[in-house]
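Hi team,

Below is the intake form for TonB-dependent siderophore receptor from Microvirga tunisiensis. Please confirm the fields before the structure is written into the shared record.

FORM ID: S-0412
PROTEIN: TonB-dependent siderophore receptor
ORGANISM: Microvirga tunisiensis
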Amino acid sequence: MKVSVVKLSLTLLASSALVFVSTEVFAQTSETRAIQLEEVTVEGSQTGQGGDITADGYVATSTRSATKTDTPVLETPRSMSTVTQEQLEDRKPQTLLDALSYTPGARVGSYGFDPRYDAFTIRGIDVTYTGVFRDGLRQVNSPNGLFRLEPYGLDGITVLRGPAASIYGASSTGGVVDLISKRPTFLPFREVEVQTGFYGRLQGNFDLSGPVNSDNTFFYRLTGLVRDAGTEIDAVKDDRIFIAPAFTWRPNDATMLTILGEYMDSTTGGTAAYINNYALDAAGNPTSLSIGATRVFAGDKRYNDFRQKQGRIGYEFEHRLNDMFILRQRTRFSALGTNQEYFFAGSGLTRENNWGIVSDTYLESRLKTGAVDHTILTGLDVSRLSYVSKQGFGVVPIGTDPVLSYREDQTQTLTGIYIQDQLKWQNWRLTLSGRHDWLTSEFDSAGLEFDRDDTKFTGRAALGYVTDFGLAPYVSWGTSFTPNPGTILGGGVAEPTTGEQVEVGVKYDLPGLNASLRAAVFDIHQDNVVVYQVVDGTNQQVQLDLRSQGFELEGVASLTEGLNIQASYSYTDARIEKLTPETVGNRLTSVPYHLASFWLDYTVQEGPARGLGIAGGVRYVGSSFGDNLNRLVIENDPRTYLDAAIRYDLENINPSLKGLRFQVNATNLLDEDGQVCTSNYCYFDEGRKVIAGLRYRW
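The structure came back. Fields below:
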């Protein structure tokens, strides 16, 4: 967010990135951001509160997600990407997968069109269950209870590639995706929008924020939407009700408390797949050798609703004790309930409820020893997950629930203590961190109890050098530890996943330009990875060891002439080191060698078309194998997707229309909907989708 000051009379808030203006102020938000005015500009935090991401357009300048401290991106010796608020507004993603589709190393779409879960990999490693965090706290999930994301409720996303367990605890070796919720803004902000689009889509959303009282100590934000929509599969809905209240109390410059809440009720399809053809054995029975998907829907529209209700409530507290010490605590309680109907040679039903509480308390200490500056974190992180899953299947009349004949429940408690030291000496940046975790798991499956206790130390060391001209090479090493909810094949409790990574990279902020280039080379080893694969038509869990090697390139820029650019390329070679004899050395299913993307957004600055924004993007996904046996019969061909957007601020036609914007976004413009196979089952890509919206901001 930028605040352009028309009359210069302002007071900066201590430790805040926003300003209060004692005379006339013009808040430059996204509908006017591309019109370059001859005014003084004060850069501000994207959230309006000195929040987790500070960005200028597409380019993030600092983020707390990587170190839990306000550290410039250039000085953070690790590979990371940020999806800023401006990127979200320009691309209008509908899911987390959409939001990550231009991020290097992120493989989305492995399961084709499937709106039930946000399943994806980073650097070839599945992070669906263990890599998604919300506001710096792990998002607890259960086998069939994964929190759904509404991108409209986000301020931004930070993607940390590689292990982050030394400060975050249980998390994937592939990386951490930190979803940053919208928070109250110091200046008034209000918008409403209506949308329509393909498949009978009707949506209304609103976002209201600002101060509550005249002395500017209380602030609020209320974000919400209602949607009634279908999808390209008639039996799969895309209905949603979402509301997210937030409240901030800032009695003085040293203390701030923010309450963050959310409730969402969404309905999609219990089955979103197509019937697969199978090879037959000598007796004419189907084998596990899947050879492709048909266009025949695998479920039944009359019994296919997958309804999920979810909620969360939490707080973020910060108190600056003095110039040396800052105490922070983040705590969140979350819960969800699912009711998943599906039909496959009979009616199936899964009802699952989970509850989780996560709390992270840490002290930030800034001190100096000789010529070395230290930023030290010492923290305690505690989380607890409980879930109950009930399942039933039977041949009953369509629309009738089968008897829930199977039950399993599990409780996991994870406690971790950690310390991190960021050392700064001249141009050198050294980060050292370590954490010790204690895990307790109690699992009951159909009356059989499986309990286990685990303990693990994880660490990270990274060294960087920041030159005076914006070049910053670095090298890092880190380990990870991840408990896995649920069971694996055979009925036992899954072993915790452990991993290790070595990374070498470089970052370059171009002098005099709001542009950044980044590159990284990595080598990951991971043991006891939980993956899903289809065996004889049944989705089952297995554990394997893998090694992933590769490199990534990324460039982002927001230039003063109304031009935004984002480009990325990644090469990933993920191979199985341990599973079955016939799979050792094979490439991991649905992980392509090559991923590339390019997004260009331009807003006309002068002339009759002033204020017209045009954007286009291309995403390339290389070939991959559809199973871990690497059989050519279900190999995934390379494919290219085209996206586009157009917008216009109507005040350029008539000043009385100030605040009105018309915008159209299209994904997969050429309707590339080929077959994609993963873990021995085949799906189809999501086809073309177009959404038009009219927004009023005041």
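SUMMARY LINE: The radius of gyration is 25 Å.

Thanks, M.
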